[in-house]
Specification:
592 residues; nine-stranded antiparallel β-sheet; five-stranded antiparallel β-sheet
């Protein structure tokens, strides 16, 4: 390996080491946050009837925690897609089991003999507060215990508070992962009651498993014009911005159309009939996953999201009711499109398809699903097929670029001669060089166009694969889950995953870079640096999903095949080789 290669490899090793250090720092930040915000325990007894009520503030308040150790009654309802468990603690939806989405577990935990605890994916499972619980002032919570009764197609939760306020909730399970809910606050007294600001919990975004670092968790809301997403990093602080941690984020001014708590592939999304005043989101610490037994490992974090309704006065025997449709299910584009009218057709926002990257990702997702439905192939083979089709579409452009680069390579001696001949006249040197290009029909920018045109496709794949729940649990050859790295085993001693597909991807990229001729005039050091760029890609994509590594590997192999075929074909427009090498011709003869 030459000097440049040693430098590049050393830089890649340093980048990998920097990544490990940053992960350690992030883990320490998370551990510090968990220590300062422990998992909720039973609160001290509070006399809700005598607690002071502030009815003038419309902002969100620090909610009273529901006692997680109190006696609990649960009722369950099941349909074809989900199992809903309602709890008397808070009178809400404790968890949703998605029957069509098995729980996945990586080779890391399988190798340690700790299988998944649940057979299906569950939403809100680790949270101590149920979805659609009413929080806020103690007078709205009391002891947190509701009486549950079964309805024909749902559950009723009822509670009368010491001050005479009655909370009545009804939940009616519908299709498409929807629950139609009503939350009524009834004044049972002969006197007006001051009603504090109420928080109706949407749910808690939780990691999907022990391998989920929570970076895809977020609290999202829509104001009628645009959707905003607050990721977990917005609350933890630190990072590149070095911002301080946030205990809560409050947004909205009587314009909250819907709010959601989501992770990478699933969402709890509340769509009120009437706009809520605000949305509030708070980071919460969660119990550790059953697969993790290490005592020194920081627990997972979640984001609890709630709709906020304004404080006010409730007249004697009056009632205020909030009607909410709750979606608790997968972030699957076709499913979200089916219920789109209920949340202003914002499926693209929920999927993370906003902006330019989403513009490319959405067509790729639709095309992948169409090919999968048409061919009935697995999603791994579907990725291979769509990669081949994209390569065929770009084949003429790439072939023309390769031929042009081949011609430029043949012109390298003449260009070197021109550079030597007109080294004292840069303007004339440029003019003569362009004349040479025109004579031999060479476009020096042709090598960049295929890369620039295909880059949105790569970015689109990057975004699409990150959001496509279809790839979750989909296997291909040795990859058990295309939405995760294809970890074959953990390297003993360093507890580092051995992921094969990224290594194949890096090898294919390295091979391709050595087949691509360098542009004439490019500095030799830059040429060598470009050839070792695959190592940098390998570092940053090593722990990304195997679906992306599969796409990039197949794309690189096809590019190698195309390059070899193009170079074997005779190019009629190629310049004839000079009889002598101008680069070796004396400068005195060239000037004649």
């Amino acid at each position: 390996m030459d000097k440049t290669g040693i430098i590049v490899v050393s830089l890649c090793v340093l980048l990998l080491g920097w990544w490990f250090v940053e992960q350690k720092k992030l883990a320490q930040q998370q551990e510090d946050y968990t220590r300062k915000h422990p998992v909720a325990t039973a609160p001290a007894a509070t006399n809700a009837a005598s607690a002071p009520v502030t009815g003038t503030s419309n902002s969100a308040m620090t909610p009273v925690i529901i006692d997680p150790n109190a006696p609990e009654q649960t009722l369950g309802l099941t349909n074809a897609k989900a199992r809903y468990t309602f709890t008397s603690r808070g009178g809400g939806l404790k968890r949703v089991d998605l029957l069509n989405y098995p729980q996945t577990i990586s080779a890391r935990w399988k190798s340690q003999g700790r299988p998944a605890t649940n057979s299906v994916t569950s939403l809100n499972t680790l949270a101590t507060v149920p979805a659609l619980a009413v929080l806020g002032h103690p007078s709205l919570v009391g002891d947190g215990q509701f009486a549950l009764t079964t309805l024909a197609d749902g559950v009723r939760a009822e509670k009368t508070l010491p001050g005479g306020l009655r909370l009545v909730k009804e939940f009616h399970v519908s299709s498409n992962y929807l629950v139609n809910a009503s939350v009524r606050l009834e004044n049972t007294t002969d006197q007006p009651l001051i009603l504090p600001a109420q928080e109706i919990v949407v749910g808690t975004a939780t990691p999907m498993d022990a391998d989920d670092n929570g970076q895809a968790e977020g609290a999202m809301w829509f104001d009628g014009k645009s959707a905003k997403d607050q990721p977990l990093a917005s609350f933890l602080g630190g990072g590149c911005t070095r911002s301080a941690p946030k205990a809560e984020i409050i947004a909205g001014e009587n314009n909250v159309v819907w709010a959601a708590a989501h992770n990478q592939f699933f969402a709890l999304l509340a769509m009120p009939k009437d706009k809520a005043q605000q949305m509030v989101a708070r980071p919460v610490s969660l119990p550790q996953f059953a697969t993790v037994t290490a005592t020194n490992t920081a627990g997972p974090r979640g984001i609890q999201t709630a709709l906020v309704y304004a404080a006010g006065t409730l007249a004697a025997h009056a009632t205020v009711e909030h009607q909410i449709v709750l979606f608790a299910g997968p972030k699957e584009y076709r499913t979200l499109a089916d219920i789109g009218q209920q949340f202003q057709n914002r499926a693209d926002d929920v999927m993370g398809f906003g902006g330019f990257m989403g513009f490319c990702a959405k067509p790729l997702l639709l095309a992948m699903n169409w090919l999968h439905d048409l061919t009935r192939l697995g999603y791994g083979w579907t990725i291979v097929l769509i990669t081949v089709l994209i390569k065929l579409i770009f084949w003429p452009l790439t072939a023309a670029s390769t031929r042009s680069m081949k011609r430029m390579q043949a012109l390298a001696p003449e260009m070197a001669a021109l550079k030597e001949k007109y080294k004292d006249d840069a303007q004339k040197q440029t003019a003569k060089t362009w004349e040479l290009y025109k004579k031999h029909k060479v476009n020096p920018l042709s090598g960049c166009w295929p890369m620039l045109i295909q880059m949105p496709v790569f970015i689109g794949f990057f975004t699409m694969i990150r959001s496509a729940i279809e790839l979750r649990g989909a296997s291909f050859l040795w990859a058990a889950d295309l939405s995760k790295p294809d970890t074959l085993f953990m390297i003993p001693g360093i507890d580092f995953p051995f992921n094969l597909l990224p290594l194949l991807m890096g090898g294919a990229m390295l091979w391709q870079s050595h087949l691509t001729p360098p542009s004439p005039g490019m500095d030799p050091t830059q040429q060598k640096m470009m050839r070792y760029m695959p190592l940098i890609f390998l570092v940053f994509l090593y722990n990304y999903s195997s679906g992306l590594a599969l796409y990039w590997t197949v794309n690189n192999v096809l590019t190698i095949v195309q390059t070899k075929l193009t170079y074997r074909q005779k190019d009629p427009a190629a310049p004839a080789a000079p009889a002598t090498n101008p680069a070796l011709t004396p400068a005195s003869k060239l000037k004649k």
